[in-house]
Amino acid sequence: MRMLKNIAVSLTTGVVAVLALSAPAVAAPAGLADGLLTEKDLPAGKGWAAFDAEVMGVGLLPGLIDPNSLGGDPCKMPDAPPLKNLLAPATTQPVAPRAAGKVKLELAAFMKGADGPMLLQTLAGTGKKAAHDLVDGTRDMLKRCPTTKSGNITMEMSALPKFPKVGDDSQAISVVVTLKDGNFEIAVPGKLVAVAQDDVYATVALVGSEEPDTAELKKLTKRALKKLDKAL
Predict the structure, then answer these.
(1) Signal peptide location in the record (predicted)?
(2) pLDDT tens-digit readout, 101-126
């Protein structure tokens, strides 16, 4: 489960780590952190519990962006960490820093029961134009590099069909991350929606050992955007 959480968090924070566009300095919305989901915002009786995603290590997979990155190719994955880093106890992992540059990044993570899936949410105060550019960049990745590799990690992406447009603009994707090391192999499926909403670039993702339910992602995304609207 430790490794599954690592890959899941990387799927979201790394997907927020590669599109690498030159974002201008912007003032983060005052209520950005207040727009994050909490356990109280999630469906009651479903076993959702928050966990600290920031101790799981830095993101390693492409998909969305670190809004503070400059230049670079969104289709080029960062170097994959050694397998031992994904298996290591959380206390030995470096804390993934919040964006310290021009754009503020907030992150929330939850586990559903003992077996998942995991729900991961990011909010970045990019400004309106950059938020739309990032959604467009996700579409560009689907066209140019639906399969990307880095060392022992492969990520396959496709557009998620029948997912409604949300926010000001959005793109939903289905992802399978495969980690292979010698005779060891694990595939982690996930579904994620990238959203431009006012001056914020947001992502909502479900990741687990089995393919997440699209209907559940739709409902959770609706809750996430409703709370974000109230916070802005």
Answers:
(1) 1-27
(2) 566 778 888 999 988 899 988 888 88
Kind and range of the H or E element at 177? Answer: strand 169-181
Distance CA 177, CA 185 (A): 11
For residue 183, the SS3 value is: coil
Task: For the chain, give the longest Cα–Cα distance.
Answer: 49
- Please name the residue that has the structure tokens 């356990």: 39
Q: Please name the amino acid found at residue 186.
A: I
pLDDT in tens, 179-229: 888 888 888 899 999 999 999 989 999 988 889 999 999 999 999 999 999
Q: What does the angle CA 17 – CA 125 – CA 8 come to, to the nearest 5 degrees?
A: 35
Name 100's Cβ contacts closer than 8 Å, sequence gap at least 6.
Answer: 68
Residue 65, CA distances (Å) to 77, 114, 231 in order: 11, 29, 22
Q: What is the pTM of this model?
A: 0.80
* Domain residue limits at 127: 2-231
Total of domains in the chain: 1
Q: Show Cβ contacts of residue 227 under 8 Å, excluding neighbours closer than 6 positions.
A: 35, 36, 37, 41
213: which residues sit within 8 A by CB, 6+ positions away? 206
Residue 116's SS3 state is coil
Which DSSP symbol is given to 73? Answer: -
Tokens read off for 37: 């989901």
Distance CA 36, CA 142 (A): 27
Distance CA 226, CA 223 (A): 5
